[in-house]
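ligand=AOF
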Amino acid sequence: MAGADADKAASDRRFMAAALRLSRKHAGLTGTNPAVGTLIVRDDGNGPVIVGRGVTAIGGRPHAEAEALAEAGGKARGATAYVTLEPCAHHGRTPPCANALVNAGIARVVGAASDPDPRVSGKGYAILRAAGIEVVERVLADEANDQLAGYLTRSVKQRPQVTLKLALSTDGMIGRPGEGQIAITGPASRRQVHLMRAEADVIVVGINTALADDPELTVRLPGLEDRSPLRLVLDRQARLSPDTRLVRTAESVPVYVAAGPEADAARKAALAARGVRLLATDTFEGRIALPELLEDLAAQGMMNVMVEGGAETARNMLADDMVDRIVIFQGPGRLGADGIAAPVDRDHIPAGFRLVREARFGDDVYAEWTRGF
Ligand code: AOF
Ligand code: ZN
């Protein structure tokens, strides 16, 4: 690549990385819409200057492009727009962003992820090109696909992206029978988990974990206390006790119970009376039919599901091939051979997953694996 072209490509990656960072600000806050970022950059001969910034608004609208164009005003003419997702081509509740970019006189558009939404797919870029705009696609596409994985998984697979989160002792256990919640990882990991919760749409646990650990599953980080996603218990027989922390907090943070046709009507009514929402779910071979349940959640617009326990739920999610991301926090302590063995550990990650991140949180080791959608 000639020097000037290489410089331009490096500059494009730098601004796209900035647009991706900007979009993260609203991750988990844009309802059924993906959180997209847009930067408008112009160069009047003294180097590139950002003249407009936009991120998909809280709730999902206006879209990122409209926000960035509003800030740039007349400075958009002749400028470059960096968009983390292909600009939309459809008349939804807002006019198409591709047309807005054309009308504002944008000269060049650099895009990261393509939008599989059939109303957009390829059409957004086509509108831009038909208007004589130079379009560069797939800049930092892997990073954008990773960040938009929830949205992309929902669009392509009609189910949310499922993240399986596990806290393991150094000898590969997730707990001890009959001991409920025990500290396996430290405070830095705990904060990280709460941040993951804040960016999820749903937290899922099985009924055994809900009863044995009595978890609250809310976000308890300073400043993010209002970011708790809804909590869902896989509870074929509606055994969840009204005395659990989950049910006692159901009025402030929604609790859903996925119950099978065999669940006792009186038990369901008692939960409903406490503000729990019952999801009538099919069962298959004696357990909740996960593919159907996840499809229902996607139909309600949910994109990111975080599975927090326990071993059986994790095993079922893996067996049904429903897991897209595995994150393991491994603490330094040992729980002993009579502990509850992890359903999956670092040495037994299923085929098709690749390691994408490793970090340390305090004394704990963190690792994350994903697979494509
Ligand atoms: C963009 N910029 O910031 C976002 C986009 O229901 P609507 O009308 O808001 O459209 C939702 C679709 O818009 C969604 O499925 C995806 O294709 C796109 N999201 N597009 O140009 C944005 N969030
Ligand atoms: Zn749009």
